[in-house]
Structures are given as structure tokens and as C-alpha cells.
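Exercise 7. Given the components listed, write out the predicted structure of the assembled complex. Treat all entries as one system.
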Amino acid sequence: MPDRTMNATSTSEPFSSPGEAGPGREARPRVLLVEDDGKIAQEVAEELESRGFAVRHAETGPAGLAAALAETFDVMVVDRMLPELDGLTLIETLRGRQVSSPVLVLSALSAVDDRVSGLKAGGDDYLTKPFAMEELAARLEALMRRPNNTRETMLHVGPLSMDLIERTVTRDGQPIDLLPREFRLLEYLMRRPNQVLTRTMLLEDVWNYRFIPQTNLVDVHIGKLRRKIDDPAGVPLIHSIRGTGFMLRVPE
Amino acid sequence: MQLGEVLRTATFRLTLAVVVAMIGTAALQFSVGYSQTKAFEFRRTDALLHREAALLAQEAPQDLAHKVSERATDDLRVVINQAALFDSAHHYVAGDLRAWPEGLAVDGRVHELTVRPNEDEPYVLRVLAVPVAGGRVLVLGRGLHMLAEWRLMMRHSLLVSIVPTVLFALLCGIILSHRALGRVGRMHEAIDRIMDGDLHERLPAGRQRDEMQRLAGSVNRMLDRLEHLMGEIRDVGNDIAHDLRTPLARVRARLDRAQAGTLSADDLRTVIARAIDDLDQCFSVITALLRIGEIENARRRVGFSLVDLNEIAADIVDLYEPIAETRQIRLELLAASGPVPVHGDRDLLIEVLANLIDNALKFTDEGGDVTLAAFTDSQGSARLEIADTGIGIMPQERQAVMNRFYRSDKSRHVPGSGLGLSLVSAILRLHNAQLTISNARQHEERPGALFGVTFPPPAQAVF
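Answer.
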């Protein structure tokens, strides 16, 4: 289970650049990192910088609050335990002042209900330490993109079309027969095209499970889906991102 | 052992309290006794005065003066200390009371007056004045000397008895405190030795079953448990070291090979990928360990709510079906007809089921069956059963598989952190649920394993 671990050294993979594909350096997404542990902060900042983020680091709660109020950030990473001003209080304060940038809450390994309180305070996602850098990057990306949650009854990604009412899927007009669980998984992928989705994200969001399975569950489900979506057409849409997860990529 | 230390002991302080109580009791006894005696003595005095006055009043008026003065030598003096006759203007006529007592009223009632004779100290009398024939007044008085004597005697005897009693009690207190201090001192010495690292040392607990020895017994049982736990931790430490060393050694060997520089780019990539897999194995062990620690420390059950096991079971089967399919194992859900409510944490219960199913799939061969059932049993308890058709678990191994890191020798080749079942038992302990392991069926080579989980009935499970 590579999901939450710190094996974050392989950056050679063609990770999708943040923001829309290829917007150029000038549009680097801005991240506010509020983290008191200098070592972790440095590591995270360097990693995110190398992935094209512009990182602003604040060491304490008040400093983070001041920074978040002074400038606009695309996304924020806030540690739960901060000196002087607790992370959750910080988020609540920001939400109270109409700062709506998405927030990912970082926390040391802790009880299940911690997650709930983190999300209740206004956090948008929650990640427990230790985590893989890929996991963090993928989640930040997901937070910035905001999924395509339109009320439309049809989803279209490349050659794929999904009818949410009829519960049918076609590729290049050819109907594909999917089980309900496969339909759910594909819907999640289609709402987030060209975006790296980690195994943990899929487990949490598609199946609503918060445990780390001993087996490659997600891979098997993706494999089944792939066989139905990609195999007949010959051109793969679902790609594996090594050491990270999967991506539904629209062919150019 | 210093005297100060003795005087500070709980035993000695208790002795002091007893001594104070003793003195208080004696004082109370004395004062109640005295007031009772006083009331009795007053009544007796008044009755005597009235009777004597009535007797004297019957005398002929001419004899009365003689009778009264004669009383000075009479036996009756013991009873009636003073007697005198006054004329109507309260002038002395006869008797041993020379002056009219100040404040005395002739009303046939007994008065308590202080008499101040010229030649003597003033003293208190109970006095009765009755009119007699010839307009004269007969005055009879009785002193309170009996009462005073009695009080003096009682006070004296009280003092004489209380002083040695108190001294004796204090002495006993000091001796008992000394003994208690000695026992506590021996316990302190034992505790010091334990703190110095001698974990086999125990507190002295004698045969008497007094509170001190019961406490020592409890502490000893606690020490036994701690020693056992320490042993477990040591074993777990060794197991962790072993389980981490193997993959780490492989990583090292692979990196060595990569460093040698004779590999092609493709081979290098393979080597690195395998090294990452080995490291992931290490991380999975560490993550599972942290998770178990987290669950075992979670005293809180705030995340608990009413959860439907049937629904969770259906979800889990949906999640694991593709895996079973790829291994050609039939994964079957024997669903209950209605909801199977359990008071618990949904996420943790999913983890339990996922681990048990995962485990069952791992130990079942191709073509086998894994069956999951959730139902409410005849006692009203929710029950889960996970049965497989694998090699099964030997009765003598059933307890051990729930311990950390235990992996049957038969299953050494099966990948995994070896912590899945420890995680399951930690979560079930949090839910007060019972986990049992038995054979799933009658079969010589493949009896299969049946993991049964019984939850407490909902009424008991609400904390």
C-alpha cells in the first residue's frame, strides 16, 4: 500500500502540471503552507515547488492567518496543531471572514473523529501524517480543480459519454455494459478528467471507506473497468500513474 | 525511624482522634450525669424542706421557738442545715440563721439564695419560708454541699482516670504507627528495587488479609501484568525488527546491485520498483502498528452510532467481489432478511470485515468458497460469520493468530503485514465484541476457518 507513505522520491513521472494542462509558468498556483515543523515544511515546500506550485510558508497560526487575509491563495495546507493559534480555529476564522480558498488539513495520526472535526471546521480535505508527497499533490490538485458537479444529466470526456439518468455509458457511440460499482467508479473519473487520483482518494470518495486495504483492491476494480472501457477500443483512456494512482486522460 | 515520622503517620493521627473522642465522651458523660444528679438533688431538697416545714408548723406556737433553737443540736441538722424563726417584721426570734436572707419571699416556694453570714464565707442555700401561727415566719434552708462534694469527687475521678487512659492510648498509637511505618518502609524498599530495574521484585504481602496487604496484593498483581506486558512488548519489538529487517535487507541488496552499474536502464527500473515494493511492505507494517496503537488507546466511543451490519456486509462483498473473481473464488453473502443493528463505529467495522474477508480470500485456494453472513442470533445479539474453505487454523494456533505478527508457518509465503487479525481483535475489543475461530466444515485437508464475531446486545452496548 504505497498510498500514505513517504516514498516521495520518484518525481520523474510525467505528473500533470497544476492548473489546466500547460498554462505556463506565469500562472503558477499559489499555496499557503501553515506548518510549524520546519523539516516537514521544507520538504513539502520543495516538493510542491518542484511540481510547479508557488509556496508561501507560515510557521504559526497568527502568521498563517495574516498571510491568508493579506493575499489570495489558490489552496491552503494547514497543520492541525499549531503554536498560538490552533489549525481548526484558524480555518474557522478564515471561513468567518469570507476566505473561501480550499483548505487541506494535515494531522498527526489520530482518531477517526478527528477527521470529522477537521472537515466540520471548514476544511475541505484531510490528510494524516505520514503521507506520500504524491498523495498531497494529487489532493491539492483535486481541491483546486473542483470536480465537475454540474446538474447536467450527461457527462462527456473524450470519446466517453455517460447518461446519469439512464445509467448508460457509450464509447464512440458503442454501449458499454457496466456493473453499478463500475458505473460509480467511472462517474468519479469522468468528473475529474486529466487529474491524478490516488488509490486512497478513490477508496474514500467512491466507496466511502477509510481504511488501508492489505490487497490491491482499487487496482483490481480499475482493471475490471479498463477491460470494459479500453480493451475493445484499443486506445487507453485510464492510465496508471506509477506509485500514485490513476488518471482518466483525454487523448489529444 | 524518627519520632516526628511516627507522629505524622495516619495511624497516629487516628489515635489522636480517638483520644480526643475519649475525652469528649468522658466530659459529656460527666456533664449529663452532673445535671441529672443536680436535678435529683434539688427535688429531694425541696421535698425535705416542705415536709419539715409542715411538721414544724404543726407544733404549738409557744413551742415553736424552742423547737427551732433546739435543732441546733438535733440530728435533723444533717438534713435541714439551717432553721430559724422570724417575726412578722423579719426580725430574728430563734434558730441558727441570724439575719433574714436577702431576697427571700414568704410564698411557700423554695428559693435559691446566697447567704452572707458575718463570720463566715457566703454560701448558697435552698431556702423555704412559711408563715406560722402568731404572724411569725419559719425559715428552713438546706445547703448544696452534697452536690458540690459529689461534683468534686466526679471531677477528681474523671481526671484520675482520663490521664492514664490518654497516655496509654498515645503509647499504643505510637507503637502501632511504628509497626505500620515499618511495613510501609519495607514496601518502599521493594518499590525502590523495582524502580532500579528489578522487575521480578514484589511487595511483601503476608497471610493476614488486612487492607495494607490487600493493597500490596493488588500492586503485585499489577506488577505481574506489567511484567507480562513488558515481555510482550519485547517480543513484539523483536518481531517488528525481524519483519522489517527482511525486506530492508532485500532493498539493500537490490540497491547494491544497482550501484554496481552493470545493469541496463530497464533492469535498473525493475530493481528500483522492487525496492519500492519492499519499502512499501515495511511501511504497511509500521502503519498497521500505529493504527493498532491508535485503536487500543481510543477509550472514547464518540464515533459510535447505530450501524447496520447487513448493509456493511453487502458493501464489502461489492468491494471484494472483483478480487475474489480474479482468484476464482466464490464470494457469497448470506444476507439477513432485515437490518442487523450494532452500536459501533462504521469505519472501524468496515475495517474488521475487510480484514476478515481479505484474510479468508488469502487462505482459500482457487475454486474455493468464502461466505459472509450477518444476522441477529436467538439471544438478540448481532453476529457476523466469515467462513472459507482453506487450510483452516489448528485449535492450538487459534489464540495466537490474534496476537501481533503471528503468522502460521503454513502461511509464511502469503504476503501481508501479519497484523490484520491483531487490528481486528483491537477493534472488536473496543466494541466489546467476541471473536471466535473454529472449523468451517468437516473436511480432512481443507476444514476451512470460521471467524465468528458476536456483538453485545444493543442494550448492553450503549455506554
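Discussion: Chain A touches chain B at residues 1-2, 4-7, 10, 109-113, 116, 181, 207, 209-215, 217, 220-221, 223-224, 243 (CB under 8 Å). Chain A has two domains: 25-145, 154-248.
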